Amino acid sequence: MLKPKRKITRDEIKKDSFVESVFMIRSYINDNLRLLGRIGGGIGLLIITMIFLSQSFQNNRQEAEYLLTKSTLYLDNGDLQNAKIQLQELIDEYGSTESGKIGAFYLAQLYLSDNNYESAIPLFERYAKKGSNPFLLTSSNEALSNLYLEKDDFNNAIKYQLKAVEHSDTKKLEAINNLKLSELYLKNNDVEKSTKILNNIRNNYADDVEIMEKIEYIYGLMMKK
After folding, report:
1. pLDDT at 14 over 60
2. Widest Cα–Cα separation across the chain
């Protein structure tokens, strides 16, 4: 009969990572002692420091992944308060890691659902600036565009919608985001740019009912101007 696996705690992760770092450095020194003496203490110390920093980066990545996983478990259980606490710790301690950037996006979404727009904006901006996932980049920029539109800040709304278009990972999504951009230009009284976008999309998506309906809707808004 198989025994249940013991859960690994956060402290054990830190302990194991530290032991691995020390062991790695000691092994390198023992294996390369003669070489280090030959090339000089300064360069040898630099090599050791680079090894240690590399291991430290790996440890930070693992810890960040741990916090992100923990926060998603809280989210799955509907415990939003503890999810926010874990995500904020993740951002504060490991914001430069990929997990830390994703954590910023998740926390921004939680603030958005609470209608706490002022807290959501800088977190979405953080991911929009430094994130790497195309879907999350598009979503972050779309959210920012909508939030700035709520504030009647058309310049920033257009700025982030342009980035949403840029990061769209399919042609259809790019067209949909361009239609949103066209509508923003129209609201900002730039009919020329709005019309140019509509004409380009209409030529390429004449058989797409969803997109053509949206185009006709925006043309209808133009007629009311």
Report:
1. no
2. 82
Any residues with CB less than 8 A from the CB of 89 and at least 6 apart, and which? 67
Report the candidate in 213, 217, 141, 138 with the shortest Cα–Cα distance to residue 183: 217
Instruction: Report the 10 Å Cβ neighbour count for 72.
Output: 16
CATH homologous superfamily of domain 133-225?
Tetratricopeptide repeat domain (1.25.40.10)
Cβ neighbours of residue 20 under 8 Å, at least 6 residues apart?
A: 55
Question: What torsion, rounded to 10 degrees, do the Cα atoms 52, 58, 61, 62 define?
Answer: -120
Q: What is the pTM of this model?
A: 0.73
Query: Which residues have CB under 8 Å from 111's CB, separation 6+?
Result: 117, 119, 120, 123
- End-to-end CA gap in the chain: 75
Q: With contact defined as beta carbons under 8 Å apart, do 25 and 2 qualify?
A: no
Answer yes or no: is pLDDT of 92 > 60: yes
pLDDT greater at residue 36 or residue 66: 66
CA gap 145, 167 in Å, rounded = 14
| Distance separating alpha carbons of residues 203 and 23, to the nearest angstrom | 64
Residue 51, pLDDT > 50, answer: no
pLDDT of residue 19: 46
For the chain, domain boundaries: 31-126, 133-225
Q: What DSSP designation does 118 have?
A: H
152 three-class SS: coil
